[in-house]
Every structure is written in structure tokens, then in C-alpha cells.
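haha ok so turns out i had the wrong file open the whole time. this is the CORRECT one, sorry everyone. sequence first:
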Amino acid sequence: FAQMASARRLSALFFVAQRPRFLTTVTRAAEPEVLAETLGSMRTLVLNRPKALNALNLNMVRSILQYIQEWQGDKDVKTIAMKGVGGKAFCAGGDVVAIAKSGSGALGDNGALARDFFREEYIADYALATLTKPYVALLDGITMGGGVGVSIHGRFRVATEKTLFAMPETAIGLFPDVGGSHFLPRLPGAVGMYLALTGARLKGEEVFRAGIATHYVASADLPALEQRLGDAQTEGEVRAALDAAQQGTAGPALGAARAAIDQCFSADSVEDIIARLEKLGTPWAAETVAIMRRMSPMSMKVTHEQLRRGASMGLGDCLKMEYRITQHCMAGKDFYEGIRAVLVDKDQKPVWSHARLEDVTAGEVAGYFAPIGTDLVLPH
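then structure:
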């Protein structure tokens, strides 16, 4: 199935997204990495880091939060939107290489970035989710990780034929954060668990059918849609403009694989998911098992528990839980090994802390949800 990403393609995407962080580019240094556009009564956040596929760094997160706080209190602003520049990506994720350097001590900042990035990113995600004004994310390209966080929790998400969605964190010893514990269990059937554990990609209209996007519009039609959104004065008018542009058709996500996904990924443990896939015995099932065998066993077990808990939790509590998990990941081994194998050395041969799922104990998994010194505090 096309939506399955190979480890090599994943490495290339992660690497392209992170590499510019460590380059010196005088011409781009003077450009804001988040721009603000005015169109009628709409203000648009423009992610302006195209050579990095608009991947988020800490300065961008802070700019996003500053703008939305300003616009939330401006009576002349009726709608807030977000998009990316460059034609390839909305936002491909976050600066995980820099975070790994911080957490490992290589950055020389005593781990400050590894704490501050996740904390401030989640605060920005929550601020976008709780806006009282209509918020529209235009997902015209790659939308992964951190890019999902600044879009999925908003009222309106517009996919196009260029949209490529994934949460590939288990491949680097992490977990699907930015509120993944909230939105993934709420996708149809067992789709969320499947996406979380395998890092599978959804493309174009599939993103709409899976419930990740609220609307599907041709990329070429976005300028006209933005103009109509700029004219809108109420949430009803925003919704009407989006509904008028809607080109998505109803139908189950993931086509022929959907029944097997619901059958297998609804199991009570990762081991049982794999057992069901192996019993199914189809080429798709065998490929899915092979992909899961490459992921961090610890990450997959933590992710399964994360989604199980998040299914009955509000977004704020999910983000607080995820912040705890991030800091336990920073204190562990697999995140750094995943970054090394996938993004730095690119040998695609991570040596995980546990060789098998069966070696990961329930107590170890529970430890990732344990309290930390300073919990995430979200604005009221």
C-alpha cells in the first residue's frame, strides 16, 4: 500500500526537515520564520522556513503564540488561518535533531531546549485549540508531527491533493505527541492506533476521509477560498465559504485495508495486534508487521497506552500527560538512538533498549506516565 513509508524515505524526509537548522544562511537569517498576512478581516500565520519544509523551531513556536494572543483580542480580526510557504509543506514537524542534542548534553544548554520546546509547543497547540475565533489550517503539503499539532485541534482543517499526513514518531524512539493521545483515538475505528504505531502516511482526499481534515479543496482553488474567508464576518460565514469550496467525497479511509485495520489494531496490546496481523497472513499484513518490527518496542508500548488513556481525557490533560512522556523519553535511550540511526548516521539500524516487545514490562511503560519535577501548566 502506497501509504506505508519505508524507513529510507522516512529518513530522507526527517533529514531534509531538520538539516537547515545547522546551516548558516545570511540571506534567510534576516527573514522572519513566521510571517503575518492580512486579508480583509482574516489574519494568516505563514510558516516561512521552506528549505526546512517549514519545520518548527522554538522561535517559530513563540511567534505563533504571540500572534494568536494579539489577534484573539483584536475586534477587527474575525478569522485566523495558518499556511506554509514553498509549495511542498504545510509543516513537516519539529526540530528533533536539535532537541536530541539538547537532551543528550551535546548542545551545552543543560537540556533547556528539550524542556522548553515541548512545553511551549504544547501551550501554542492548546492556544490554537481554544481560540474563540474561527481558525482555519490550510494543509497544502506535508503535514507531520508538529505540523499536526498546530492544525488538528482547530475548528477547520483543509486538505488538498498535495497533503501528506503522518505521525512517524515510533520510528525515532518517540511517540505521537502534540495531542496525539486526544485526536488519534477519536478517528474512525482503529485508524488512529494504526497511524500511531506504524507511522503510515495518508495522502490527499484520504486525509479528509479519515477525519483529520474537515474539508478537501483543490490546491489551485485555495487563493479564491482565502479571499472568501477574508470577507467572512462570522463563523457561520467561514463555514459557508469552506462548505461551498468542499470537493471531498464521503467514504471509508484506507480503502481495502480498512477492515483489516479495524480487526487487528483494536487489540488490547501491541503483541496481540501483531498476532492478529500474522494470523491474517496477507501481503499487507506481513508488510505491516515488518514495519512495526523496525519501530522502538518501548515507543510502541508507550504509544498504545497513551492512546488508551487519551481516549477518555480532554485535550488539556492529554497534553499534560504527553509532556511527562517527553521528559521521560529525554531521560531514556531510544529517542537518541532513533535520531542517530534515522537522521544522523542514517544506517537504519537502531539498537533499541529492548530487542523485543515481550521484553518491555508493564512497570517500565507505567514509568513514562509518572509525575515529573515540573509539569506542564496550560493557560486558563
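The chain has 18 helices and ten strands.
again sry for the mixup
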